Amino acid sequence: MILIERSPTANKVGQDIPMSTLLASTDMHRDNVRAALSLLAYTLDKRGETHDLDKLNKLPEFHVAFKDGFKDGKWFDTHMKNSRHHLSYHTGVPEDVNLIDVLEYIADCVMAGRARGTELRPVIMDAEVLARAFGNTVNMLNEQVLVQEPPPEAAEAKSE
Fold first, then answer.
1. 3 phi and psi, to 5 degrees?
2. How many CA atoms, within 13 angstroms, populate the side-chain half-sphere of residue 101?
3. 33: which of 25, 71, 116, 160 is 20 to 30 A away, CA to CA?
4. String of b and e for 126-147 (b: at least 16 CB within 10 Å)?
5. Looking at residues 41-57, what average pLDDT do you find?
């Protein structure tokens, strides 16, 4: 959760406010954006820690599917349901797809492709999926923000 204070200047564009108030408000805004980006970076880092854990947790099944060239499809279908990063497959796109999923997908494709030692295969994504990921990420971050009113004494000091 990100706790922020209501901005003393956000609704005062076009008004003459003290430069010290504008400075304090800008510093507060910069801190708020830094907190949001830190939360997203933390979320992305955690995603990296858990990437493809089902391959390790179900190694015998993964081994059988790998050896068979994934022809059966059952293991990969389950993997797509347990993962959020197979966005080039319709069945791999979660309803609440977000930009963390998109970044994991890109990293997965580039790292796997480059590790093969061959040309990178095209990394594709449906524009509707990307648009939905954008909107869902906005909602995901918005749900993590709690706005509080500044204490009355702080509001009075900022308006002086």
1. -100, 120
2. 26
3. 160
4. eeebeebbeebbeebbeeeeee
5. 97
